[in-house]
């Protein structure tokens, strides 16, 4: 059944980094690694998916970073800088998405958050993202020891939100996570731009 002919979702679950929060490691790292090719190499080989995964599973980012720092001693200072100055990787809310959340809230649509984010840096960043107060629950990977697209973390969101997977739509900028959500039974939108996501939500029948 297509999204157009299906009943509208009754709940929206948002990823945070890159969807609601304007997070990008380059915001910080470009200020300490000025040469673009060197920065690209660093992000591909050192401060990479494996490093971010270790942080996403962590309650304590400093402790989680230590094994990676030991593997790359020549770059340990940059990895430490990433953790210590994490706040500089987030520039606040993405305005069109926070406005979307306010419209959904005004229309009475329940919203929840599901993010791969270290527990400590999320707690430190949350006050800078006041729109998150419109969410009923926010499930944080670092608090749970589970990361998307593990089906157990999708189950946790549905349990906490009190809704069946078929009644929810999940918005994430990672295609892997979107595919995992769909396999779990949620509808899902691969977020690329606010305009595209808003259009897809409207197509599903939501007051976006």
Shape: globular
Q: In total, how many beta strands?
A: 7
Radius of gyration: 18 Å
Strand order in the largest sheet: 5-4-1-6-7
Oligomer: single chain
- How many helix segments? 11
Kindly state the mean pLDDT as a whole number? 96
Strand content: 5-15%
Structural features, described:
With 208 residues, the protein is α/β, with parallel strands linked by helices. It has 11 helices and 7 strands. It has helices at residues 25-29, 36-45, 49-56, 61-71, 76-84, 95-106, 119-125, 141-144, 151-161, 175-184, 194-203; strands at 11-14, 21-23, 90-93, 111-115, 138-140, 168-172, 187-190. Strands 5-4-1-6-7 form a 5-stranded parallel beta sheet, sandwiched between helices. β4, α7 (119-125) and β5 form a beta-alpha-beta unit. α3 (49-56) packs antiparallel against α4 and α4 runs antiparallel to α5. The longest helix has 12 residues, at 95-106. The two termini are 21 Å apart. 38% of the residues are buried. The model has no long low-confidence stretch (mean pLDDT 96).
Give a quick precis of the structure:
The protein is α/β, with parallel strands linked by helices.
Observed structural traits:
208 residues, alpha/beta, five-stranded parallel beta sheet, 11 helices, 7 strands, 13% strand
Question: Could you outline the blueprint of secondary structure elements for this entry?
Answer:
Layout: E1 11-14, E2 21-23, H1 25-29, H2 36-45, H3 49-56, H4 61-71, H5 76-84, E3 90-93, H6 95-106, E4 111-115, H7 119-125, E5 138-140, H8 141-144, H9 151-161, E6 168-172, H10 175-184, E7 187-190, H11 194-203
Parallel strand pairs: 1-4, 1-6, 4-5, 6-7
Antiparallel strand pairs: 2-3
Helix pairs in contact: 3-4, 4-5
């Amino acid at each position: 059944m297509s999204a157009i002919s299906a009943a509208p979702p009754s709940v929206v679950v948002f990823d945070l980094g890159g969807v609601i929060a304007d997070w990008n490691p380059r915001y910080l790292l470009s200020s300490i690694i000025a040469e673009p090719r060197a920065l690209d190499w660093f992000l591909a080989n050192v401060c990479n998916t494996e490093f971010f995964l270790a942080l996403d599973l962590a309650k304590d980012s400093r402790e989680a970073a230590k094994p990676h720092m030991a593997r790359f001693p020549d770059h340990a200072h940059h990895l430490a800088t990433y953790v210590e100055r994490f706040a500089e990787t987030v520039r606040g809310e993405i305005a069109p998405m926070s406005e979307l959340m306010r419209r959904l809230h005004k229309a009475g649509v329940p919203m929840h958050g599901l993010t791969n984010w270290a527990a400590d840096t999320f707690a430190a960043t949350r006050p800078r993202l006041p729109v998150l107060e419109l969410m009923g629950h926010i499930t944080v990977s670092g608090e749970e020891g589970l990361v998307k697209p593990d089906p157990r973390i999708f189950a946790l969101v549905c349990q906490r939100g009190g809704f069946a997977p078929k009644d929810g739509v999940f918005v994430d900028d990672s295609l892997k996570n979107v595919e995992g959500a769909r396999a779990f039974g949620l509808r899902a939108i691969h977020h690329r731009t606010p305009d595209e996501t808003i259009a897809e939500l409207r197509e599903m029948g939501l007051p976006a």
